[in-house]
Amino acid sequence: MKTRSIPPTAALLALGVAMLAAPATAQTLPRIVQRPLDQYVPAGTEVILRVVAEGDEPLSYQWLKQNPETFVDEPVPGATQAEWRWVVNDGAQMGRYRVRVRNPAGEVLSDAALVHLVPLVGWGNNPEGQLTVPPGLTNVVAVAPGRVHALALTSEGRVVAWGNNFYGQTNVPPDLTNVVAIAAGAGHSLAVTAEGRVVAWGFNSQGQARVPEGLSDVVAVAGGQFHSLALTQHGRVVAWGANGAGQCNVPQGYRFVAIGAGATHSLAVTAEGRVVAWGNNLYSQINVPQALSNVVAVGGGYLYSAALTAEGRVVVWGDNRVGQRDVPANATNVVALATGYYHCLALTAEGRVIAWGRTHEGQTRIPGGLGNGLAVAAGEDFNLVLTGFPRGKAPPQILAPPWVAGTEGQPLQVSLTVGNGADQLEAVGLPAGLVLNPARRVITGIPVARGIYDASLQASNALGTHQRTVRFHIVPSGLPSTVVWGDTSVVGWGDNSYGQINPQTSVVGVTAIAGGIGAYSLALTEQGRVVSWGYNWDGRSRIPAGLSNVVAISAGWFHGLGLTADGRVVAWGSNAQGQTNVPAGLSNVFAISAGDLHSLALTAEGRVVGWGHNYNGQTRIPPDLTKVVDVAAGTQYSLALTAEGRVVAWGQSDQGQTSVPPNLSNVVAIAAGQMHALALTAEGRVVAWGTTQAARPMCPRI
Fold first, then answer.
1. Please, which residues bridge with residue 460 across strands?
2. If 0-12 CB within 10 Å is exposed, 13-18 middle and 19+ buried, where does residue 634 land?
3. Closest by alpha carbon to 588, among 127, 233, 134, 143?
4. Taking residues 575-581, what's their average pLDDT?
5. Average pLDDT of the residues in 310-334
6. Strands, E, within 118-178: which ranges?
7. pLDDT digit string (tens) for 356-406?
8. In Å, what is the CA distance from 625 to each residue of 433, 564, 609, 672?
9. What pLDDT was estimated at residue 477?
10. pLDDT digits over 283-318, tens only?
11. Does this chain's domain 31-115 share its CATH topology with 510-695?
């Protein structure tokens, strides 16, 4: 058989023809088998974004980040692996990420994964590391930025600070514990302990970190550029530090429930929801809009002011050179407000953050995907937001003030923030007259009885329960909580032997009255002035010259007492038994009462002080008497009402006037007559004891 070899070139041509004739294998598009997962991590933590894809090789990857302003997915340089590891440091790196997987057949995009910082998100200017949250910081319940530094408060009562430390503002005192509130000024820091004590550190050029001696019972603080403010549980504002613009000249005659500090001006909210402002007025930042009412929070920027109303509306006034007053139309249902030097933040009930004003450092550009906000705070040109997890990711977290100050008979509203989602919210032990609305996360109502109440708040979901205690301090309505404008006049009747029921001049705008058994009368006007008329042989109707800013009065038999807005007691009239010799150093007084020949004062710390006639021990205070909220002085005996609603009596008891009924409890008010005593219970029942002369203690049914 004869064979013939095929030339190599011809063989190759034949092979090519055969290959062309064979059917081709189709390329398949990549397919996402496992999408990247959402990440909720603290700042400084490594984020791992991973995708699992299948399809014909070769597969290539490109991670993309959504631009929060244009919503366009933009490539992340260097992120070209199926698993991408990186460290998230600030809010600018937050957002929605997806990956593009490509092969020769085409490409596919994964679903977006959210990278979200918890518990703090920061963005804006960061030259001093004020946005560099310390690694491992957890359990944060409050945050307070200064000019270029920041503070955080943990649930354990610990303060953590970072950022610029040129003045020692981040050197937290090592023994500082049990903290319940924080604030930051331009270069100084403030903290309030559970005992009501203020601690300050940092820049002190104007005395802004030098806490006034004796300051106590504080529930909130605020820091301005070079001054500080404190709010006491009795509604008094104390200011210290720089006062070149009058920012420390606190207006008198008001009872305040919230405070805020601008650079060189100050703000406070009264118990009735009105705003009072004082200090620098270069851009009309203290000219509060007349129609503004029902306010629950205030804040001050460099030359502007802002307020949040109970309806969730934000009002801004003052400087508007960079749009600080241009509140966005979508800023509704707002529950929290923060003011930077030239920009504002608002937090809605849905956990959404809104920003406006100056944006040169990106401080008004909200990081992509930011949600679940719990609290907002603004520094000079940077922001910090306290965030939580979405519903179903973690147990609930209640954020509420540790102290709430209110006035009996006055409306009160307390907004609550519940992070991580709660299926149930309950409150136990609220003061009578207040109720919790779980849907709105708000406590509202009108407290009907003075006293101190510890309310327990509890939130729960499928993953756990969180409990928090809030102390309500409801103060008496006897002290004016605000200036009352009007034509209120005095009307008297009865014995007029010495003109005690006929003022010699018209007395109008009266906020309080008192009648002395010694045939004279007192009235307190809205301007803090005391007017007196009637018997005056021993000077009981002769008011000391220059006495002003008075907030309470009391009339004894032969002497009178006045309490000024700064907690000072002034006495006049007969001093036969030393009843007008006010003890030296007596300060921070909250209530007063004048007996026949002795006087009583109650300090903000709940301490009773007595002086004057003591023949029957009426000024000898029981050594174990504490937590007092009111006092009353009788003829030669004394009464005190404690926060638990208990009445304590001491002094003369020949007519049973100090024999308090053994089952008497839940008392909300007391009064002392000559030889009999009265108590009013929270149920509206009047109880009397003491002498039966003229049927004094036989109370009619009411």
1. 424, 465
2. buried
3. 233
4. 92
5. 95
6. 120-124, 140-145, 149-154, 159-163
7. 999 999 999 999 888 888 899 999 999 999 998 777 777 888 877 777 777
8. 28, 25, 11, 18
9. 62
10. 999 999 999 998 999 999 999 999 999 889 999 999
11. no
Q: Which segments within 343-431 are labelled E, that is strand?
A: 343-348, 353-357, 373-378, 382-387, 397-399, 403-407, 412-415, 417-419, 424-428
Q: Is the pLDDT of residue 669 over 90?
A: no
The number of residues making up the chain comes to 702
Which two three-digit tokens encode residue 619? 């000024």
**C-beta of residue 683 within 8 angstroms of C-beta of residue 654:** no
Do 650 and 636 touch, CB atoms closer than 8 A? no
Q: What is the CA radius of gyration of the chain?
A: 34
Q: Residue with structure tokens 């945050």?
A: 143
Per residue in 24-70, pLDDT (tens digit) is: 556 789 999 999 998 888 877 889 999 999 999 999 999 999 998 88
How far is 332 from 200, CA to CA, in rounded Å? Answer: 36
514-543: average pLDDT: 83
Question: Predicted confidence band at 490 (pLDDT cuts at 50, 70, 90)?
Answer: low
CB 260 within 8 A of CB 337: no
According to CATH, what is the number of the domain 397-475?
A: 2.60.40.10
Question: With bands split at pLDDT 50, 70 and 90, how would you rate the model's confidence at 696?
Answer: very low
> Taking the model in full, what pTM does it have?
0.61
Which residues sit opposite 66 in a β-bridge? 73
pLDDT, residue 224, reads 97
**Token digits of residue 234:** 């009795």
Residue with tokens 């000077």: 539
List Cβ neighbours of 317 (8 Å cut-off, separation of 6 or more): 284, 285, 287, 288, 289, 304, 305, 306, 325
| CATH architecture assignment, domain 31-115 | Sandwich (2.60)
Distance, in Å, from the CA atom of 402 to the CA atom of 219, rounded to the nearest integer, reads 8
Angstrom distance (rounded) from CA 600 to CA 640? 10
* In the predicted structure, residue 244 carries a pLDDT above the cut 80: yes
How far apart, in whole angstroms, are the C-alpha atoms of residue 516 and residue 520? 5
Q: Is 305 in contact with 340 (CB distance < 8 Å)?
A: no
Q: Any idea where the domains of the chain sit in the sequence? A: 31-115, 120-387, 397-475, 510-695
Reading the block at residue 60, the tokens are 């290539």
Residues facing 387 on adjacent strands: 373
| Helix, strand, or coil (residue 95) | strand
Q: φ, ψ for residue 511 (rounded to 5)?
A: -110, -15
pLDDT at 483: 30
Per DSSP, 206 falls in state T
In terms of pLDDT, which residue wins out, 538 or 636?
636
Q: Looking at domain 510-695, does it have CATH number 2.30.30.20?
A: no
On the CB side of 611, CA atoms within 13 Å amount to 18
* CA dist., res. 520 & res. 316, Å (int): 49
For residue 673 the two structure tokens come to: 């007559």
Higher pLDDT, 504 or 608: 608
Q: Are 517 and 596 in contact (CB under 8 A)?
A: yes
What would the two tokens of residue 337 be?
A: 């407000």
- Contacts of 272 by beta carbon, 8 Å cutoff, 6+ apart: 410, 411, 481, 482
Q: Give the DSSP per-residue string, 175-203.
A: T--SEEEEEE-SSEEEEEETTS-EEEEE-
Was domain 120-387 assigned CATH 2.130.10.30?
Answer: yes
